[in-house]
Amino acid sequence: MLLDFDRLGPLRWFLVSIGVAVSLFLLLPVLFIVGLSFGDSQWLIFPPPGWTLQWYKVLFTDPAWLDSLLTSVGLALVVMALSVTLGLLSSLALARGKFRGRTALKAFFLTPMVLPVVVLAVALYGFFLRIGLNGTVIGFVIGHLIIALPFAIIAIGNSLESFDTSLEDAALICGAGPLETKLRVTLPAIRLGLFAAAIFSFLASWDEVVVSIFMASPTLQTLPVRIWSTLRQDLTPVIAAASSLLVGLTVVLMLLGLVLKRGKA
User: Fold this and answer.
1) Is residue 11 included in any domain, yes or no?
2) In CATH, what number is assigned to the domain containing residue 62?
C-alpha cells in the first residue's frame, strides 16, 4: 500500500526535514572543497579570506598536474569505448543466447561490482608484476576495464530485455540481413542504454583511485593518484581544484544523462 504524501500532515514536514538534512550532510563536504579551490590562501582554510582562480591556473599549467589530467581523460575515453563495445557483445550473448550456464556467466561478469576493490587491485598488481604490465597504459586500461565493464553490461542488458524483439523479426522478414537489423533497428532502439553505459564506464575510470594506485608508476599517474600522492606531502589548494574538477565533470555527465532520458520520455 502506497502512502499519500500530501495527507501525512505534520509528518510530511518531518520527512522533508530529514531528507534535507541527509542531503546537506552528503553535499556540504563537496561544497567546502569547491569553496576551498577558489580561496586565495595557500592553506586549506574555510571560509577563504579571499577569492582567486590561481589554483585552477596552476592545475592547468603545471606539467605534472596537466599530465595526470590528460592521462585520466585519455584512459577514461579508451575504457569507455572498450567497455561499451564489449558490454554490447556480452549483453547480446546473455540476452539472446540459449546456452547452458548463462546465469553463471552473467554473475561472473558482475563479480567486480561486489568484490572489494582493494582485493582486485592487489590481485591485478601481483599478476601484472609478473607479466610486465604494471605501470603501463595497457595495465591501466585492463584494470579500469574490469571495473567499468559490469556497469556497461547492466545498462545495455536492461535495454535489451525491455526491447521488443518482434521489431527485429519484422526487419528480417522485410529482407534486412542480421547485421543490418542490428545496426538499423536494435542499436537505435537501445541507444539510451548505450549512452548510460558510456557515461558510467567513463566515470568508473575517471574516478578510480584504488586500482590506479597499484598500477601507477613515477611517470604514469592519473589525476586521482596525483591527488592522493600530493595529500601525503603537502595540503595545497591545488588539490581542492583538482577534486572540484573531478566532481564537476561527474555531475555534468550525470545531468546530461538525466536530460537525455527525460527528452526520450
Assistant:
1) no
2) 1.10.3720.10
